[in-house]
Amino acid sequence: MPEVAEAQIFPVLKGKVAIVTGAAQGMGRATTEVFLKAGAKVVMCDIKEDQGQKVAEELSKLGEVIFVKADISKGAEVRQLVEKTVAKFGKLDAAVNNAAMTPDNTPLIDFDETYWSKLTDINLTGTALCCKYQMQQMIKQGGGGSIVNIASINAFRPQPNMPAYTSCKHALIGLTKHAATEGGPHGIRINAIAPGAIYSEMSAAALVTMGLTEAEFTPQVSTLNRFGMPHEVAQGSLWLSSDASSYVTGVCLPVDGGFLAK
Q1: The whole model's pTM is what?
Q2: pLDDT for the residue 259
Q3: Parallel, antiparallel, or unpaired for β 94-97 and 252-255?
Q4: Residue range 82-94, pLDDT digits in tens
Q5: Do 97 and 78 meet the contact criterion of CB atoms below 8 Å apart?
Q6: What is the Cα 204 distance to its own chain's centre?
Q7: How many CB atoms lie within 10 A of CB 210?
């Protein structure tokens, strides 16, 4: 695991309320932590209730945070997530739509139709439902706000044996651009982030499966010759959610250690 110092965080989200989906682990948890340090009140969402409640309790020392269980592929649950956020904190200023299923692992000519449908329901339709109800609430409040959709470098450069995941991440860029055109007149900014190879327990296990060391693998996925860390992706979401990016909308920010530059 690379040792990357966390950047200093300033209270740029003080007084703001944010939703983070897929927040029980990985980039979602890191985003919740960074947003709390930046002064936001955060509603964590995940389908993993026990784990999510535990993380919320652990992070409560940093600020006001609650956990709400929701399956983002179900519109009624997404609507209730937003309603519970407003009931608890009075408004919604920002959202990071991070929840997603893990990539498929077959070539297109042999893809699993059931997994394709499940992945699409969450990674694409689920993100669209999040945007729908988040934007509705922001408009209801009188406009303003920021939404960040978590895409992937797969949206720009397909990786082997991930036809469903790659298709959804490409579509997510289109969704983000479309949402930005609708949100703009209301002062709502919608952007995306495309993470590259980010360190996790899953990526570490994958190296073992591939029989590669981290030193052997990382030059293939980053010009910095290392994995990215979840908190580095979270810093991108923080910037896009803050007033520092007030004239930025409809874009996708790669956080990939230079992979797409290779």
Answers
A1: 0.96
A2: 95
A3: unpaired
A4: 999 999 999 999 9
A5: no
A6: 20
A7: 10
